[in-house]
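Sanity check

After download, print the first record. It should look like this:
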Amino acid sequence: MKKSNIYIGEVIKQVIAEKQVTKAELARRLGVKPQSVDYLLTRKSIDTDTLYSLSLALDYDFAVLYSIKKEHALATDEESPFKVGNAKISLEIELRPDEMLKLNLKQKIADLLEGKGK
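Expected structure tokens:
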């Protein structure tokens, strides 16, 4: 069985430094003793329940580190093979009749339905 080369304790240290969370504060958020946080920071791996609790406590998705697709976990927006070319956005707006009249929406909708809006 292949093992990951991720030392989760080191990653947790980096995240708490970036988020400026102290060990004591993290212990409080997790409901554990500060010594337990110290222990976590020395670990190569931890169980999934603890990883989930840490993700919630630090608002950081640690699970992405273990993605089997390296491009998912490591790619920047520019490098990502999963770029969106076009997006469809649906928006529902409730307008009063006088607002529709001001915007000439009835005619614009009719033109679109008839194919004139292109």
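If your output differs, re-run the checksum step. Summary of this record's structure: The mean pLDDT is 78.
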